[in-house]
Design a protein that fits this description.
Blueprint (H helix, E strand, L loop, with lengths): L7 E8 L3 H12 L4 E4 L15 E2 L11 H17 L4 E9 L7 H13 L10 E4 L15 E10 L1 H14 L3 E3 L2 E9 L2 E8 L4 E11 L5 H8 L8 E12 L7 E5 L5 E7 L3 E5 L3 E2 L11 H14 L9 E12 L13 E6 L7 E6 L5 H12 L26 H11 L5 H11 L4 H4 L18 H10 L5 H7 L10 H16 L5
Helix pairs in contact: 1-4, 1-7, 8-9
Length: 509
């Protein structure tokens, strides 16, 4: 922008490129509003890629009487399963019963409510399991005689964020990654907002409304960069996970009860591994520096070892990650019972340009949260379009009849040069959008260099041009989880390829 030129003008500027920010940008753009989203790092670079990767109602929230949240989440579970069948799929959970923690009647009641509190069309209901007679009992200690099975869904969390951002862009939104929100001040009927790009350059934009979806930084943005005081606050809770080599056969997960009334999941992960999590630890440090502690690792290992025949030890951990969940502070003393619901703070006193801050939320309810956010802003944009996301698909999700197995079979028939594992991975990651970079390929060589596990130059080029990937970490750990499968040296090879790609690109005019 030239000196003295008027700043870019938007209806809404969204701060934060996690699931809530991208969901709101998507919804707003689809209603005909002009939108800019600014994310200080990579999309899903914080909390949204550090989840347990579930689309679920939250069975344990029933104990906290969070019936509205559970009903909403279960309703959204069905909608999201239909919207993105490539990155979301059904997952069966097995709950070994420990009568010393919860009585069987209470578990049965909870599962009955879970099956019936909201419409359930695509997933099977709960059942009682006698472990001596069922393969589900094989990994468990003999002391567990009876359990229960029910259904929820798995989600590739960071990919869900990217797909929401892609949909927003395709509907007209401007998505600015590695762009730091510096400050904003009210001027007349709008906000004057300063943004800083990765090179240190400053851009000023105007917006009629500002949405603060900064996750763990929501309160800091509100008070120090906007100068707005709020009666609402965020409670930072650290959740950590470990990954070990596959613990058992089968595609089912276990939900393990602990004496402290918390639960820990063991979930099949990336075909060769088991994901174990999560913890709930109050956190009061800088969210950028979050990492799992030795105490948390022991807690997760002990939880699994208490129930499984084969113990899990710290030395078995091949990878771990931690994230900070920005929960709405409802005054609860224990981290594990802080509400997972979301709350808005709309500040527009005296007709001032509005600032909407988002406290809390969970991946499962991101679409409904975005819809609610637009309800809050509706009076400021009377000409905006109606709600539209309830029945829409996400990019790549327009798979015929949602039949993923048939989609993979058709892909392999059309592209027989793709190895079975690579074809399945590509189908899972991109759905119908994989045609963007393999559509014209007639042989493996047409996709360029293979960096391992079917990650080709063509795929990397697509991730850079269409999915905002900039670094090897973006590609290996957020756009995919290939970092678990490939040698550490691959990161350096990808970094060199990316640098060569940048060097070969003509300078911007």
């Amino acid at each position: 922008m030239q000196a003295g030129a008027a700043p870019d003008a938007f209806d809404i500027v969204v701060i934060g490129g996690g699931i809530n920010g991208c969901g709101i940008a998507r919804d707003a753009a689809g209603r005909g509003l002009s939108v800019l989203l600014a994310e200080q790092g990579d999309l899903a670079g914080g909390t949204s890629s550090a989840s347990t990767k579930l689309i679920h109602g939250g069975l344990r929230y029933l104990e906290l009487f969070e019936f509205r949240l559970v009903r909403e989440a279960l309703t959204e579970r069905e909608r999201l399963l239909q919207a993105a069948p490539h990155i979301i799929w059904p997952l069966r959970f097995v709950l070994p019963h420990d009568r010393g923690i919860r009585p069987a009647w209470l578990v049965r009641l909870g599962l009955f409510l879970y099956d019936h509190i909201a419409p359930r069309k695509r997933l099977p209901g709960c059942e009682t399991i006698r472990f001596a007679e069922h393969p589900y009992g094989k990994p468990l200690k003999e002391s567990f005689k009876v359990g229960f099975a029910y259904s929820d869904c798995w989600v590739e969390d960071s990919r869900l964020v990217v797909l929401a951002a892609m949909d927003a862009r395709e509907r007209g939104a401007e998505i600015c990654v590695r762009t730091r929100f510096v400050s904003a001040r009210r001027e007349g009927d709008g906000w004057n907002i300063a943004l800083q790009d990765a090179g240190g350059g400053t851009r000023h934009v105007r917006a009629r409304a500002l949405v603060n979806a900064a996750g763990p930084w929501v309160a800091e943005v509100l008070r120090t960069r906007l100068g707005v005081e709020s009666s609402k606050n965020v409670r930072l809770i650290k959740g950590s996970h470990i990954v070990v080599r596959r613990l058992y056969e089968g595609e089912h997960a276990y939900i393990l009860q602990n004496a402290d009334k918390r639960i820990v999941f063991t979930i099949p992960y990336e075909r060769d591994f088991t994901l174990i999590g999560t913890t709930d630890i109050a956190y009061d440090q800088e969210p950028h520096r979050v990492a799992i502690s030795e105490e948390e690792t022991r807690y997760l290992c002990d939880s699994v070892s208490h129930c499984f025949r084969t113990p899990v030890e710290s030395k078995d951990v091949v990878w771990s990650y931690a994230g900070v969940r920005p929960l709405f502070d409802d005054g609860s003393l224990k981290a594990s019972v802080v509400t997972r619901d979301y709350v808005f703070d709309l500040e527009a006193a005296g007709g001032a340009p509005p600032a909407l801050s988002v406290f809390g939320g969970k991946i499962t309810t991101f679409r409904r949260l975005a819809e609610h956010a637009m309800d809050e802003l509706a009076r400021f944009f009377p000409a905006m379009g109606p709600a539209w996301t309830e029945t829409s698909t996400l990019p790549g999700g327009d798979i015929a009849d949602g039949d993923f197995a048939a989609f993979v079979a058709a892909l392999r028939a059309r592209k027989p040069f793709l190895a079975a594992d690579a074809a399945r991975r590509l189908a899972r990651a991109y759905g119908t959008r994989l045609e963007a970079f393999i559509g014209k390929a007639q042989r493996a060589e047409d996709l360029g260099r293979d960096f391992g596990k079917g990650l080709t130059a063509a795929e990397i080029d697509y991730l850079v041009s269409s999915e905002w990937a900039v670094t090897a970490e973006d590609i290996l750990w957020r756009r995919s989880k290939l970092g678990l499968h490939l040698p550490q040296s691959t990161a350096g090879e990808i970094a060199a390829y990316l640098e060569g790609r940048r060097s070969a690109s003509p300078p911007s005019p």
